[in-house]
């Protein structure tokens, strides 16, 4: 076909108005979700931590996609594409059209300067079936109001491509686009069936609009209309919703009394303890040594340790005895002493809480260090009070770790809690009997502290509506079915106890943490085991080992078992880059299907608290079932997202919501769900291990 008129029109758009006023060019998503023009990539990436999710329509392709700037120079994205008119499985119309999962990545190799362009190297669909695989290099340079791109691609992006984005001030958030599309649609998989073979590529034109939190693009290529709509979220923002429903800081109810009067009258002591309990603090212990008051506390609601300790310090300074010269507060997690704060300038604390002293000045008189369990044991032997009475349970709306909707939680003084999650959702993709399988259910969870570091916990779920029982194709895995029979567990019983555990936590030494567990770990396995964590003080690395003797549960019996036992042992080395919030973890050992190997994890926690990560596992399990083969066994891989609900709610909470997505449900390289992972527990409560100062949010 003749492309001369289009070529001339594209050339005119590329070079007209070169000297219009310049507006900072944003990186925008292409139809694949990866930053680019329309169908072609460019060298741009979004600001660090920018998350985007969207939907693209480009017949015969319908694509749900997501992308994130995982590191300052690295963008990763994933997409789930439906190919119209192509049957997913032969002789099975229930599944519908063919669906494909793909993962893309782009690395900014060189940042733009006054004279040189920005350079990026990228890859598309580099995992799994790789139906739409491609590699490329792209160069982008801003000239006045234009952002010009030239690149070269291989495979699906075959040859030289290029284009421009025109974004002057007077267009506001709008922009005009032109590109040279080099995709050979006829070479796409199933091109004849889907109709892609009729497409020719060539010049494409588009109009887009971008607001801070959303954007849209409408375009046309070889007479074919395309559309892209997306939402954008800055993960580097500390929070997305202001905490307008947060309880007010403590205010004294009466005048302070001297230390000797306070010590002689138990009512003053009781008043201070009650003030701490009413603010949500638990495991409160107090000890007075002359003019030094020592306290231990825990808090299951406030996200940041510095904020929780600051609120406790405010309460003690304003509601405790007058004449204190030093305050020491030890923060507990699972009844293990983690961090100790030592305040040596009480007058400075008073001025800070009155708004008359900046935090940078106060912190010069504050010492924060890893708690010594021996010293802590000495302190608690000197307790002033032994209180067993319990205030009325407080009920608050909260999101539990697994929940996706509002839950109700009641908690009493020793740390017992009851949580109801009215609606939760499990989803499964790409089963041959249907592209989307789901289970909508309700869950009740309870926990109780039985003694020092000893906790009992459990949860039960009841299915409300599900279509997983419609799965007709059994697992064809040649390994023990440790995960691939998931449909049986989701549909076997409408009401099921999925967790019933005893956990004993212990801190044997200053840099050591231990846990022992027994019971029903999760819906598929029960057993007994333990974990030992070593985390040197002021170091960015940690090491742990977890060993569990497990037996597989029967999906059709509340507490029965299948005839499968295994002993798993996983050693893990963690290394953090606190300045970036990045954690790299290498695990090695024996996995659930008795396969031996290694698992690599890389994750990043952004300033908002959102964590995004990926994993890749290689074992000797040799999973040759599709998409694996004898010459190329399948290795477990995927990505996960954890969202702190405090960033989305008007009240602080430690609850999180999360999801993990793997291309296939397989048995190779699988791990049991930890009863309570010590590394995660300590990391979450150890500000120095993250990109968070131990005084962040102090007392707010």
UniProtKB/TrEMBL annotation:
Keywords in alphabetical order, please. Signal
| Record's signal peptide | 1-27
Q: What is the recorded name of this protein?
A: Exopolysaccharide biosynthesis protein YbjH
Recorded superkingdom: Bacteria
Species assigned in the record? Plasticicumulans acidivorans
